[in-house]
Amino acid sequence: MGAVVSAQNVTKIYQMDKVHVVALDGVSFSLEEGEFVAIMGPSGSGKSTLLNLIGCLDKPSSGTISINGTDISRLSDRQLARLRGAYIGFVFQTFNLIPRIDALANVLLPMTFLDKIPPKERRRRAQELLESVGLGHRLHHLPSELSGGERQRVAIARALANDPKILLADEPTGNLDTKTGKTILELFVELNRAGRTVVVVTHDATVASYARRVLYLLDGKLVGDERR
Question: The whole model's pTM is what?
Answer without folding.
Answer: 0.93
